[in-house]
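ok new one. same drill as before - structure tokens go in, u give me an amino acid for every spot. 209 of them this time. try not to just spam alanines like last time pls lmao
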């Protein structure tokens, strides 16, 4: 094979690979398409549905940090894919250190960020940038039962199938995060707040540009 033909083949393969990678990136951007930043409640709902885990801060009951903030990672789901309710559900065991905190004081906060998805990386946003949308939910963690527990199970197991195999002797139970305030940082100008009423009224499926 001549040097010219070889170079032509390498160039063609490079163009094909670049085109394929660009198409994949475009599909990822379309899949994670954030609402306009002035639609604050919708942005909060969007973030809550996109992420699969959150950092939950409790008031510690354990030495040597009793009474101090204690943050831990938990898997969450606000509903099956494309069917978010805005309510973060969790699958917990009383053997877990943060859950022991909640038994004394159920108040907590949840932090979620689009840095947990591909969105910020693809856009070139640092996780701490205001443009890398993130939310903080304050409220309390409550156990759910009956029909709501069945919905929590469907919501969590559909997005975290490994949970179905977790040890049964850990006495797992379903909980929800009962939201009392929503804080949103998704653009320049400082943090914005959203009431729970406005948060739950916001449509997850409304079309945006």
């Amino acid at each position: 094979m001549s040097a010219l033909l070889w170079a032509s083949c390498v160039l063609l393969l490079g163009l094909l690979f670049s085109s394929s990678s660009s198409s994949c990136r475009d599909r990822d951007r379309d899949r994670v398409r954030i609402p306009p930043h002035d639609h604050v409640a919708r942005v909060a709902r969007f973030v809550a549905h996109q992420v699969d885990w959150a950092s939950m801060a409790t008031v510690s009951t354990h030495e040597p940090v009793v009474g101090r903030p204690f943050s831990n990672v938990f898997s969450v789901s606000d509903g099956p894919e494309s069917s978010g309710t805005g309510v973060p559900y969790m699958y917990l065991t009383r053997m877990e250190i943060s859950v022991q905190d909640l038994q004394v004081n159920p108040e907590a906060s949840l932090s979620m960020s689009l840095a947990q998805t591909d969105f910020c990386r693809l856009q070139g946003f640092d996780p701490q940038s205001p443009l890398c949308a993130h939310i903080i939910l304050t409220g309390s963690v409550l156990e759910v039962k009956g029909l709501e527990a069945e919905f929590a199970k469907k919501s969590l197991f559909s997005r975290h199938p490994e949970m179905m195999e977790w040890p049964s002797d850990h006495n797992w139970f379903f909980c929800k995060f009962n939201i009392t305030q929503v804080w949103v940082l998704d653009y320049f100008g400082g943090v914005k707040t959203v009431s729970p009423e406005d948060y739950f009224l916001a449509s997850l499926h409304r079309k945006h540009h």
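Strands lie at 53-59, 69-75, 89-92, 107-113, 134-143, 173-185, 192-194. and btw The longest strand covers residues 173-185.
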